[in-house]
Amino acid sequence: MASLRSVAVTVALAGNLVSASSLASSSKRAVPALAQVINQKSFNVLPSVPTAEEYNASSAPWVPLNFTAAGLADKPFHVYDDEFLAIIGPNPTFTIIAQTPKDPIFHEAVVWYKAKDEVFFVQNAGNPDAGTGLNKSAAIYKISLKEADAVKNLRDAVGKVEVVHVPSTPEIPNPNGATQYKSQILFAAEGQGAKIPPALIVMNPVEPYNTTVLLNNYFGRQFNSLNDLAIHPKNLDVYFTDPTYGESNNFRPAPGMQNQVWRYNDRTGAVTVAADGFVMPNGITFSPDGKYAYVTDTGIWRHGLELSNPSSIYRFTVQPDGTFEDRKTFAFVDTNIPDGVHTDSKGNVYAGAGDGVYVWNPSGKLIGKIYTGRTAANFQFVGGGRMVVCGETRLYYVTLEGGTGEGAFVDSYL
Ligand SMILES: *[C@@H]1O[C@H](CO)[C@@H](O)[C@H](O)[C@H]1NC(C)=O
Ligand SMILES: *[C@@H]1O[C@H](CO)[C@@H](O)[C@H](O)[C@H]1NC(C)=O
Ligand SMILES: *[C@@H]1O[C@H](CO)[C@@H](O)[C@H](O)[C@H]1NC(C)=O
Ligand SMILES: *[C@@H]1O[C@H](CO)[C@@H](O)[C@H](O)[C@H]1NC(C)=O
């Protein structure tokens, strides 16, 4: 890493930007003020390529040759393919709306409560800086999108958007994933210690934020540490992932079942396995038509860093009966892991990774990144081309004005 970074720094002033015209395309779209084109040919050949021990993208993002970390952050919409210009539109915005010194309260479970135009999210469970896990459960917070909208043309609006603590009652133990569910919010909770099992828990999104457990076992057996969930837009079943991050973070015992993707039918109570064969199944989502399921596998982080494991997104075809078929490797991310995953209304696939939100077209071509320069574990589309991106100790508000950057938000399960 050291040699790579020094190369980038010494040539920093040589001119970072590749003009849009150098892309092999007939597109006439201008590159917006907050965007820059990254020509992948420009780093196909590096003067020296570091070893995996020197650079493995686990602790610092990739800085292409002749770019700098500051330059990458300055224009955070990175265009890897012209197709991205149609998504971001002529005037995308990118604003830091909140920040904490150390506590990673902007982690995952990013969910839009449409009725009040609010966004809920949760703290990183098991992170030493949060003091959560075995001793203290991770907290839930929310913001008002009206306040975020008002500052969207600023780059830094820290202090201008209130971050409100949400006291769920009874408290949801170490929540990590969330989705809209029948006008309420459904969380995937990782559990706490050996005695409080992982569970799917519904929360009333208004005071008193009362909660009800929907599912906490499979035929009497504890799940490992439920991570993320998604509702299929056609059959309305809840599909959820169960890796062992509770064990990795020392707040859950050794696993009692293999890591896999589950399916819950809340009309019959049936719990079935949807897919296995993962190291650490993590984010999950569906294409807007429900034809495809996307599951991220963040196996490189299990017992520490295991670089030969997946850092990948798999796509399945969802059969009319809701079963998964035809597992296909969809993408492998360059920087750290693909965590939360969501699709837009056109079926493009977005995932939070080590340096921002990556965007692939439906065939798995990387077309752009919304660059945070730090881990962006999850994010959510919140209507009208708006996005909220969680960056652990930073919260971002993004607007895409291309009209195709709309999330695949399905009202039918509201
Ligand atoms: C990087 O900058 C150097 C120094 O100006 C220049 O010679 C080289 O062509 C540049 N490389 C790329 C890939 O842009
Ligand atoms: C990954 O890179 C970091 C330096 O950024 C290094 O400290 C670590 O040992 C590397 N890990 C492996 C497994 O190579
Ligand atoms: C819980 O608290 C005890 C006592 O302060 C501490 O030793 C332990 O490391 C904590 N465990 C976790 C998982 O944070
Ligand atoms: C919250 O409490 C109200 C009033 O008792 C009840 O109708 C509702 O179902 C509860 N919601 C949840 C998610 O527990």
Model description:
This is SMP-30/Gluconolactonase/LRE-like region domain-containing protein. InterPro entries: 6-blade_b-propeller_TolB-like (IPR011042), Oryzine_lactonohydrolase (IPR052988), SGL (IPR013658). It holds the Pfam family SGL. The chain is mainly β. The protein is built from five helices and 28 strands. It has helices at 2-10, 69-74, 83-88, 145-150, 245-248, and strands spanning 35-37, 77-79, 93-99, 108-113, 118-122, 140-144, 164-166, 175-181, 184-189, 199-203, 211-215, 229-231, 238-242, 260-264, 271-275, 281-286, 292-297, 301-302, 304-305, 312-318, 324-332, 341-343, 349-353, 356-360, 366-371, 378-381, 386-391, 394-399. The protein has a six-stranded mixed beta sheet. The chain has a four-stranded antiparallel beta sheet with strand order 3-28-27-26, with no helix packed on it. It has a four-stranded antiparallel beta sheet with strand order 4-5-6-7. The chain is globular and about 55 Å long. The model is unreliable at 1-26 (pLDDT under 50).
